[in-house]
Every structure is written in structure tokens, then in C-alpha cells.
Design a protein that fits this description.
By secondary structure, the protein is α+β, with helices and mostly antiparallel strands. It folds into three domains: 63 residues, MutS, DNA mismatch repair protein, domain I (3-Layer(aba) Sandwich), CATH 3.40.1170; 162 residues, 2-Layer Sandwich (Alpha-Beta Plaits), CATH 3.30.70; 141 residues, Dna Ligase, domain 1 (2-Layer Sandwich), CATH 3.30.1490. The protein has 14 helices and twelve strands. The strands form four sheets. The protein has a five-stranded antiparallel β-sheet, with helices on one face. Strand 1 and strand 2 form a beta hairpin. Helix 13 packs across helix 14. The relative contact order is 0.09.
Length: 375
């Protein structure tokens, strides 16, 4: 979808058409941009930017508070259109998905015709635009869909995938983040074509198993199927505070509260996690994450809190004001796949309760903008 959150509001309020629109928190406070339409992006505004900075860059922008139930309802209606065309639909987010139409071309004749029908129906039935990439695999289809934004259709035919990918920055490949991009740069790799010239043994020595994936991606090879079962990879919660936290005891109370929210979310879904990640954002918006992995999965609030509290000691929180804290559980397993190590968890929970009682005094943090996350 094109600028999905903002597009929903613009569709429903004609007065917003042609105007720069920001979906996010209060620009007079400590809010963050959740989405920005193309009109405001021209001013350098983008998601995750402080709303106050977005206001400075575009003083005449319209700021709208997010309405997530509204977006979810719209998303469900759009994905229902997809599933009428093929049952093989993999949602990767509220506004993006993969469709496998290989065996579902009846009445269309080609994948390109299916893509044109998707765009026509979403526009006519939902009043929104969608950009589509058509290709033999997920890797090329995803990049093609981005290539055509907004409101575009880009087709990469079989046999032309390598040609399509070759001139692109290597960062465009799935799984290549800033760290991998820097490491590839040390090997003289800037484009996908450059990556294609690096021997397999060099990539696997430097990146392990992921090196083999990069080797294949550079050659347009991607065997990942479209999976109709969406598996949750993580569950977490975070909070941005109206005032920076400077008291470590206050931070620890907040971490225990966040850990309890995560544990309750896991229990409701009959899940448990092996990895606990702590996210800390300082006053200058520098963000760090620290993670620890258990031998077995847990959904126990005491254990999650204990790990997150230990991770806090591995940050600069004692020396730097903290703007945001977050706790996430990942490496999830279903209820049938795990069993609580009760003795160890009871000990940790008892230790946590004892510490909580000791630190009971002190002001509660001023609540800010809370955001739950899960993939």
C-alpha cells in the first residue's frame, strides 16, 4: 500500500488532498512520526523522526493521531480482495503481502493481469492505491513493488531478474542492514553486481550461512515460498516518556512493568520466548538494544524482568537520560513446545519481588506514548 495510514485519512477527508500529512504523536511534545505521505516527505520528513523535528521541517504539515483499529479494519478488507484472487497470501505487515498466483491464473492468463486487477479493485472498492511488483520470486517482487511507488506496477520477467537487480545498491537486498552493508563495503561491494563477483567461500567465511544466501540473492535466486501461516517472531512493548528518566530506580520499575506486560501477552497466546531484548533510547535519540538468550523458553514475568534488568546494566542509562524503554521476547515457542523450569523461575521471581519491595518508594514515571509491537 502507498503511505497506507495517511492515505486512509486523505481518502476520508477530501480537505487533506494535496496537503502534507503526518501520522504520529504531538509535535508540541515528544511524539514520533508513524507515517508520512509523499507531500511531506519532500521536506525530509520520514517515519521514526521526532514529531517536533517534522514540524520544524514542514511547519504547514497536518498532524493526525494514529487510529490503529481503523487501519486494521481497512487492511482486512484489502487482504480479502487478495484472497479472492489466490488462497496463497502471506501478510508481512498491515499494509504489505506476498501473493503466489502460479496456479491461479484462470481468467487472467498472466500474473501481470492479476496485478492489474488487484490495483483496479483496491482503487474502486477501497479508494486507495497499491504498488505491485511481479516477479518469479519474493526477492525481486518486493524490490519491484518499491521500485514502482507510488501507484505503480513493475514486472520483472523470468530470465531478467539478475539484470534488474545488478545496478541496485546492495542495501536493497532482503536481510542487508547497516552492519552487513558496512561489512560488504569493506569487501568493495556497493551494488548487487559487485556482490555477484565475490566468491562463495569469501562470503561464507565472513557471514556464515547468511553468506550463502547473499551469494544466491546476487544471482536472483530465492527459494522462499509464500507461506499462508504467519508465525509470530516476537512480542514486545515499549514506552516513550514525556520527560527523560534519570533515576535508575525509576527505570528499573518501568522495566518490571514492561516485562509484566510482555509476560501477560505471551500467556494469552500460549507462547514463551527464549530471547529477551531490552531497548533503550537516550535523550539524543541514540538507540541501543541488548539481548540475552535462555537455554529454554519462558513466559514468566520474573525471569523476563530479571534478564532485562541485567541488560540495563550493560547500557549507559546510569550516565545518560533515557527517553524510551522497551522489552521484547523473541525466539518464541508454542505451549506444546515448552515447559516451565519452575524451580529456577520461582527463585528469580522471589528475588524480583524482594527487590521490588525494597525499591517500592519513589514517584511513578509520567506515562508517555506506549506502543506494543509484534511480528
Amino acid at each position: 500500500m502507498d503511505c497506507f495510514y495517511a492515505a486512509v485519512h486523505v481518502r476520508d477527508d477530501p480537505a487533506l488532498r494535496g496537503r502534507p500529512v503526518v501520522i504520529g504523536g504531538n509535535p508540541e511534545g515528544r511524539g514520533v512520526v508513524a507515517a508520512a505521505n509523499y507531500e511531506v516527505r519532500r521536506f525530509g520528513v520520514h517515519s521514526a523522526m521526532p514529531a517536533a523535528e517534522a514540524r520544524r521541517r514542514c511547519p504547514h504539515a497536518v498532524f493526525i493521531k494514529p487510529e490503529f483499529p481503523r487501519y486494521r479494519e481497512e487492511s482486512e478488507a484489502i487482504f480479502a480482495i487478495f484472497r479472492e484472487l489466490t488462497p496463497l497470501v502471506q501478510a508481512v505487515s498491515i499494509d504489505e503481502g506476498y501473493l503466489d498466483v502460479t496456479e491461479h491464473l484462470e481468467g487472467f492468463g498472466s500474473a501481470t493481469s492479476v496485478a492489474e486487477e488487484i490495483r483496479r479493485r483496491v482503487r474502486s472498492e477501497r479508494g486507495l492505491t497499491v504498488s505491485v511488483g511481479v516477479a518469479p520470486n519474493k526477492l525481486a517482487a518486493k524490490i519491484a513493488s518499491d521500485h514502482g511507488k507510488p501507484d505503480g506496477l513493475v514486472v520483472v520477467r523470468p530470465g531478467r531478474v539478475v539484470e534488474f537487480l545488478a545496478p541496485l545498491p546492495v542495501r536493497r537486498l532482503h536481510g542487508v542492514g547497516p552492519a552487513t552493508e558496512r561489512a560488504l563495503g569493506e569487501l568493495g561491494v556497493a551494488t548487487v553486481a559487485d556482490l555477484g563477483r565475490v566468491p562463495l567461500d569469501v562470503l561464507t567465511t565472513r557471514f556464515g550461512r547468511h553468506g550463502g544466501v547473499l551469494y544466491e540473492f546476487a544471482r536472483g535466486i530465492d527459494g522462499r515460498p509464500v507461506s499462508t501461516e504467519r508465525v509470530r517472531k516476537s512480542l514486545g512493548t515499549e514506552n516513550t516518556y514525556r520527560r527523560d528518566l534519570t533515576d535508575v530506580a525509576e527505570m528499573r520499575r518501568e522495566i518490571r512493568r514492561l516485562a509484566l506486560e510482555v509476560a501477560e501477552g505471551l500467556e494469552r497466546r500460549d507462547l514463551a520466548g527464549r530471547t529477551v531484548t531490552l531497548k533503550v533510547r537516550y535523550e539524543d535519540f541514540t538507540t541501543v538494544t541488548r539481548a540475552r538468550t535462555l537455554v529454554g523458553p519462558t513466559a514468566h514475568a520474573g525471569v523476563i524482568a530479571r534478564l532485562a534488568l541485567d541488560l540495563l546494566d550493560d547500557t549507559d542509562a546510569r550516565q545518560r537520560p533515557v527517553r524510551l524503554l522497551g522489552v521484547t521476547a523473541s525466539n518464541l515457542a508454542g505451549g506444546a513446545e515448552w515447559q516451565l523450569p519452575l524451580f529456577e523461575e520461582d527463585l528469580l521471581a522471589a528475588e524480583l519481588l524482594e527487590e521490588e519491595s525494597f525499591e517500592e518508594s519513589g514517584p511513578d514515571p509520567t506515562p508517555g506514548t506506549a506502543k506494543r509491537s509484534g511480528e
